[in-house]
Amino acid sequence: MAPLALANRPALRATAAAPRRPARRTVVTKAALLDPTLVVSGSTAAFLALGRFVFLPYQRREANFDASVGPKTTGTTYFDDLQKTSTVFGTNDPAGFNIIDVLGWGALGHAAAFAVLAINSLHA
C-alpha cells in the first residue's frame, strides 16, 4: 500500500470533531499512618544517641586484656597495637565517638526504622 492510500482511509483521517474529555475518575489516596522521613530520621537519631551516650563506655572498656590477647613478639600485645591512635579515625569528641561508630549506629537506626515501616505497612 502506498502512503497516500493509508491517509485516505477513514480511520486515519483527521476529523474536525471536538476532542473528547476522559471520564472523571475518582482517585482514592491512602494516607500513611507514619511519615517515612520522620521515622527514619527519628530512629537514626535515637540509635546514634544510644550509641554515643549509653553503649560507648561498654565498647571502649578494657577488661583484663593484658595477658590474654595475642602472642608477645615485641613486648606488646596485639590489643596494645590496636589501641594506638590512628589519624584516620581521629575525632574531637571527648568520648572518642568516631566515623566507624557513626556508620555502625546509623545503619542500625536505619534498619530499625525500615522494620517499623514494614510492620506498619502490614496493618494498613
TrEMBL record:
GO cellular component, one term: chloroplast thylakoid membrane
InterPro entries registered for this protein in UniProt: PSI_PsaG, PSI_PsaG/PsaK, PSI_PsaG/PsaK_dom, PSI_PsaG/PsaK_pln
BP term (GO), one: photosynthesis
Localization in the cell: Membrane; Plastid, Chloroplast
Keywords from the named record: Chloroplast, Membrane, Photosynthesis, Photosystem I, Plastid, Transit peptide, Transmembrane, Transmembrane helix
Signal peptide: none
A Pfam match: PSI_PSAK
Predominant subcellular localization, coarse grouping: membrane
Domain of life: Eukaryota
Membrane topology note: Multi-pass membrane protein
Family (UniProt): Belongs to the PsaG/PsaK family.
Protein known as: Photosystem I reaction center subunit V, chloroplastic
